[in-house]
Design a protein that fits this description.
The protein is of the alpha/beta class. The chain contains 12 helices and 16 strands. It has helices at 13-25, 56-60, 76-83, 95-106, 120-123, 125-132, 155-164, 207-214, 229-240, 249-256, 288-305, 321-329; strands spanning 4-8, 30-35, 44-46, 65-68, 87-90, 113-116, 138-147, 169-173, 176-180, 187-191, 196-202, 219-226, 265-273, 276-284, 311-314, 334-339. The protein has a 7-stranded parallel sheet with strand order 3-2-1-4-5-6-15, with helices on both faces. It has a 7-stranded mixed sheet with strand order 10-11-12-7-13-14-16. It has a two-stranded antiparallel sheet with strand order 8-9. The relative contact order is 0.16.
Amino acid sequence: MEQNILIIGGNGLVGKTISRILKSRNPHLTVYIGGRKGGQTDKDLRIDVTDPSSFKVILEKKISLIILSVNDREDDVLRFAIAHHIDYLDITKPTPALVKAYDIAGKSDVNSRIVFSSGWMGGIVPGLVNTLSHSDDIKEVKVFVYYSVKDLAGESSAHFMAENVAVPFVHYKNDKPVSIRHFLDTESFKFSFGIGERKAYNFDVPDLYILNKVERIPGVSVKMTYNSRFITWLLGSFQYLRIFNILSLKERKMIFGSSGNGDQSVFEIIVKDKEGQKKLSLRSMKGQAELTALSAVLHTEELLRNPHENNVYFSHQLHEPLSLMTQLHTYETININITQ
């Protein structure tokens, strides 16, 4: 069977990285790149997510899987994939957009594999949680994120923070949503890999929703710290004084839009169950873009390799948890440590 893969947003940082990793591991695949301006080869397609009339080329090229790595606010690509029975993998959505798209897919007659992979670093956190304990036994999950301003970052994450930093979101305590705001409620945490003790602050990622509503874990929180202690303190101060509320979107984009030349990315998962506490620490030496892209490739390979039924999935539901962790661990630039 012909396997033609389309990466929409394939000219962006993460899209290019997905293409590189996917083609290096699967040279037999035909990989097309979709972007607003098209390109110079027959593998570059002009596809604009705001213009559904541009989607007809997807059928002409007999695309079997769409990987979406650009923001599709109206979910037109999702609706197109469902209508034409094309497999779909989305790594782009913040929590409100994810909930909306998941509802659209759930109410549709689905005859392909529709996969939402918008959690932290390509949706791998819930799968890694399930390597530590069975979700039915878990009382609480805490995720701590270390973000370096030196990391090579794409525009999408900066734009998300600029648009949402002043918007309240929820985490979960005793299975109840608690409204909070970014960069408040400091908690000290000792990061692994030589980073040491840092103050971490509230941070919104779709895993809050996924772990509570899908995996039924009653307590879920995510907190983040920057490599710069000053920047971490400054953002907390801005939020406490509600300065973000009076800044324009353009000004907020300037604050969050910096990108370096590359640095490590680290996150740590703390799971509390009836047996006690377990911790999984993961470091990507090549940063967030590489890890997010690798995760998308692992999900893609799983869809191509195994006969998953036509249905709506979160990406971690495709994998056996230990298999997912093993594939991440064997990637040369990723380190994983587990402690109990």
